[in-house]
Design a protein that fits this description.
By secondary structure, the protein is of the alpha/beta class. The chain contains eleven helices and eleven strands. It has a seven-stranded mixed β-sheet with strand order 3-2-1-4-5-10-11, with helices on both faces. Helix 5 crosses helix 6 and helix 6 runs parallel beside helix 11. The chain is elongated and about 70 Å long. The relative contact order is 0.18. Bound molecules: 6-O-phosphono-beta-D-fructofuranose. 6-O-phosphono-beta-D-fructofuranose binds next to loops.
Length: 319
């Protein structure tokens, strides 16, 4: 293999730049030519592809977002779209592609591999919802953003003796909410995988009030529903003054944590190794601190599981 491409796709995540840097540097280290595809699969179909040099990824390891930009593409889901992309890659002689993104992006990578163009998936999403890896690139940074925001909310919640419902991202997965709940000592964590009954959340708030607690924090994963409505219901039921904060896209931005930079560097480099071995249709990940790879189709057919022991622990520590 002499020429490979790299793209970022779907929702961006802090650490994607560190992964792009690792791919480019590792490829050049092995004397491959490496091409950056701009705007994800949209750019791939349009041929928005440029050669990357060592210096083109200098000074990006610490930057949030993605220098290759990202997009969600409907056209690429069609056979014609995928064919168009393959033709563009063949035009410049690319022989393999590294796709940094989440499960939607991996579906595209699996389709290209099926059509004879080898792709490797690198899990980059704040949601941590990809099986086959303990962590996805961006999760740690997003978690720390949430932790910092909730600490600040706690200050004002205490001053005003209020209850706060804080809605966090995660799509259908509860990982961000659960980890943030544990890290912030939230009274309740409400996740799609295991919904605590409304009655039990209310009972816990009332017990806290009887003990003289000055404030309460409820972390709600967006996959459960609307935080504003949940907050209204809580206020109506408990008569406690309640406010809602939807953290939104600040969770996707910011300089990647040290952990995410290292993870991205390890996974980006491994993806290059696999292409060099002539392997396609794999996803790289980290399990028990070892870099691993899995069949991408198997990963797409496996359901992500949240760590229920951590959920139990969160409940035990917030009685
Ligand atoms: O997958 C990352 C994510 O931030 C999810 O947590 C969220 O549900 C979604 O993307 C938001 O997507 P968009 O930026 O397209 O609104």
């Amino acid at each position: 293999m002499k020429k490979i491409g790299v793209l970022t796709s779907g929702g961006d995540a802090p650490g994607m730049n560190a992964a792009v840097r690792a791919v480019v540097r590792k490829a050049i280290y092995h004397e491959l030519e490496v091409y950056g595809v701009y705007n994800g699969y949209e750019g791939l179909m349009e041929g928005n592809i440029k050669k990357m040099e060592l210096g083109s990824v200098g000074d990006i390891i610490q930057r949030g977002g993605t220098v290759l930009y990202s997009a969600r593409s409907e056209e690429f889901k069609t056979d014609e779209g995928q064919q168009k992309a393959i033709e563009q890659m063949k035009k410049i002689g690319l022989e393999g592609l590294i796709v940094i993104g989440g499960d939607g992006s991996f579906r595209g990578a699996a389709k290209l591999t099926e059509k004879g163009f080898p792709c490797i998936g690198v899990p980059g999403t704040i949601d941590n919802d990809i099986p086959g890896t303990d962590y996805t690139i961006g999760f740690d940074t997003a978690l720390n953003t949430i932790v910092d925001a909730v600490d600040k909310i706690r200050d004002t919640a205490t001053s005003h003796e209020r209850t706060y419902v804080i809605e966090v991202m995660g799509r259908d997965a509860g990982d961000l909410a659960l980890w943030a709940g544990l890290a912030n000592g939230a009274e309740s964590v409400i996740i799609p995988e295991k919904q605590e009954s409304f009655e039990s959340v209310v009972a816990k708030l009332e017990r806290g009030q009887e003990r003289g607690k000055k404030h309460s924090i409820i972390i709600l994963a967006e996959g459960v529903g609307n935080g504003v409505e949940y907050g209204k219901k809580i206020e109506e039921e408990t008569k406690m003054e309640t406010r809602v904060t939807v953290l939104g896209h600040i969770q996707r931005g910011g300089s990647p944590s040290g952990y995410d930079r290292v993870l991205a560097s390890r996974l980006g480099a491994k993806a290059v190794d696999l292409l060099m071995e002539g392997v396609g249709g794999r996803m790289v990940g980290v399990q028990n601190n070892l870099v691993v790879d899995h069949d991408i189709i198997e990963i797409l057919n496996t359901k992500h599981k949240v760590n229920m022991n951590m959920y139990e622990l969160s409940n035990q520590l917030s009685i």
